[in-house]
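re the bet — no i am not wrong, look at it urself. input seq straight from the record:
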Amino acid sequence: MQLALSTLGCPDWDLERILSVGREAGYDGVDFRGYRDEIDVTRHPLFTDRADETRSRLEAAGLSVSALSSSISLCEPGDRSARVAEARRLIEVADAFDVDRIRVFGGGDLDAHSRADLARFGGETMREILAIDGAENVRWILETHDAWTASDDCQRLLDELPADDVGVLWDAAHTVRLAGESPRETLDALGDRIEYVHVKDAVYDPDHHDATDDGYVYAVPGEGDLPMADVVEALRERGYDGWLVFEHEKRWHPSLADPDVALPAFVEWFRDQR
């Protein structure tokens, strides 16, 4: 497996710091989910006007861009122009950096629409995105997230999305915490479509000021309660050799450990799983 860090974990770092720590810690790549004050990297000059310079700096550090993580939600009804425009910008950045995967969300409001209708909206949005010139050159990966976290629910949306163009981003912490699935249950259900994986650890502490809605507080890998070691073991058993991304959500949860500590700790934790 190849290891990538998500820039969610180091929202205050500049590119030099990201690349320096990434290289020294032993990462293979970077998943750009925002850069400093800009969550949409397609609107930052480092990834547009200065893309050649940024790519050269990545190559010099021995790192690649594992994926681009968008904010696109497929299953929202109504005008799709903003989502399609974001997808078009992402395709341009992906082409500049030889990126082969772009993350999307399912999203949608189950209080306002049935799951079947949301899945239909998702299929319609995805087909509109796939009509963009160059969209066929990347894989669009649907994260196990929000209304589409449980494997059965995720599969319901996948049934509306073309398998030739869309895979699954397995956020293992989500399926464990929110869907109550063991890692092997998720892999048995979605393994043929999983081609990118997020991992993070957490402890149950609902009184903590920075707890998630379900009462968990993210932790340095190996210091939490989630079966992340089982995730790695199950992936190896299936012969998975893709990207394993440490998604340290410092941007959303400021009380988490500083990236200087957490990012190297993940690599050390992963090496201990061998």
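see?? The CA atoms of residues 203 and 224 lie 5 Å apart. told u. also The two ends are 11 Å apart (CA to CA). so pay up
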